[in-house]
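Human: My hope is that you can spare some time for a protein that puzzles me. I am handing you a single protein, as its sequence and its fold in token form. Could you go through the record with me and say what the backbone is doing? Take your time, and here it is.
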Amino acid sequence: MLRFILRKIGYGFLVMIGIITVIFLLFSILPGDSTIMTMGQRSDVSSEEAVRKELGLDLPLGTRYLNYLNDIFPLSIHNQVNTESIFYLDKNKYEAYTLLKLGKENVLVVKKPYLGRSYQSKRLVMEMLNEAIPKTALLALISIFFAIVAGIFFGVLSAVFKDTWFDKTALVVSVMGMSLPSFFAAILFAWIFAFLLADVTGLNMFGSLYTVSDFGEGEYLDLKNLILPAITLGIRPLATVTELMRNSSLEVMSQDFVRTAKAKGLSGYKIIKNHVVKNALNPVVTAISGWLAGMMAGAVFVEYVFDYKGVGVMIVHGLEKYDFPVVMGSLLYISIVLVFISIFVDIIYGLLDPRAKMKG
């Protein structure tokens, strides 16, 4: 089991290196001068050259890539003389702790990853992400929880009532849910439930997790703004989980141990609860890890439509303003989180099904 876990961690590390490389190369060749984005349109040549040197944009591509790796990894090598450089402007939050001296000038340090500063607001990207990630994470967790619970329930019912009107209706709805794009579903739900039926539902077309009080009392938690984005984001995984759970339950129900349980006189409820659901969950667990990535991608459109101030809105606004550090930091943060989730799910799946260790 330890070898299986180490192998998965090794694969995950290689995937992260690949993601980091792709993100760096992609935004290194994109059009748009970072110095102009930093200083604005009114800038002179000497000032632009100074900013390019400060940001390290005057260095060769290979050197910039190594510096980028040095910035984002917790363990990095720095010049002992230059510890007051751009990487540590905010020493209260990004102070480096020396672990080992390497020669006369270089030191090995441990620090928080540095993702750069926004060209527009000059804020640390990590600080901006720390504000936005919890909102997106809460939205994704509620959506996947809704999809799992409802999907397992409807999937099992479809298997139990196979070929009935309920099963056929669930199949049609599942196909529609899997084929419906997130941005279209978001617009459709906002129009129906927050515009046409606003008097009945009391929901808003736009709104984030926190709303500014009209009476000058600051921000307050507004959970109702989570309802429509969460349901919209959960439609596609709900359809997938329903279909997977139906097919997996039908397969389990045809096994010998289920027929044995029926022969022993166990009620249908106990057979479904104690035998069918538990053994049918494996493909659902695998699908959840894959859908987390899809949900984070779909969250970009859903958050933008509902103006839900999460990472998705950050990425869209960053692209609109050519704020590359914000976009790069957001994509990198999300990608690494998803890699860790994928490793965790693979390990859990290996514990549930020992055959997975042989395949992995």
Summary: The mean pLDDT is 77.
